[in-house]
Specification:
Nuclear Transport Factor 2, Chain: A, elongated, 8-stranded antiparallel β-sheet
Length: 144
């Protein structure tokens, strides 16, 4: 019992160290300016540090977004929640061909270095699977 408690405490503590909320006044102006320019309609913005990058979680029109920005104001990665029906047809076709019996549970669209990727969480009654596809519908080994 104590071992489980210590493990849970250690995992929680390591998450607190890795990603901590960052007050807006501690976010550099190039980061803020870049963010405001790219996402002028953002609401409910929460900042934190993730490694060397500034991370903002926010909403636009009740859709979840997340962006990673370096200290010079360059957007490194942008994630946004999308609906299954908004997946490109080529991505949907790949999923249907390769994952029969699974249904789509959650979808996110990522932009990294001007390329788009789709992270699709799928499941059956007994299994779960995460798949990343590029905009051509190809399954890729990419960690997002």
């Amino acid at each position: 019992m104590i071992q489980k408690f210590l493990l849970a405490f250690g995992l929680l503590y390591s998450n607190l160290i890795y990603a901590q909320d960052t007050p807006l006044k501690e976010v550099p102006s190039p980061v803020i300016n870049s963010f405001k320019k790219a996402f002028p309609n953002a609401t409910d913005i929460e900042w934190e540090m993730k490694g060397e990058l500034y991370n903002a979680e926010f909403d636009i029109n009740r859709k979840d977004h997340e962006v990673w920005i370096n200290d010079k104001g360059s957007i490194i990665k942008h994630k946004r929640e999308i609906r299954t029906r908004d997946l490109p047809e080529v991505v949907t076709k790949t999923l249907k061909q390769n994952f029969k019996g699974y249904w789509v549970d959650d979808v996110a669209k990522y932009e990294v270095a001007k390329q788009f990727f789709y992270k699709v969480e799928m499941q059956t009654l007994t299994k779960e699977k995460n798949v990343v596809l590029n905009e051509k519908g190809e399954i890729v080994d990419r960690v997002l």
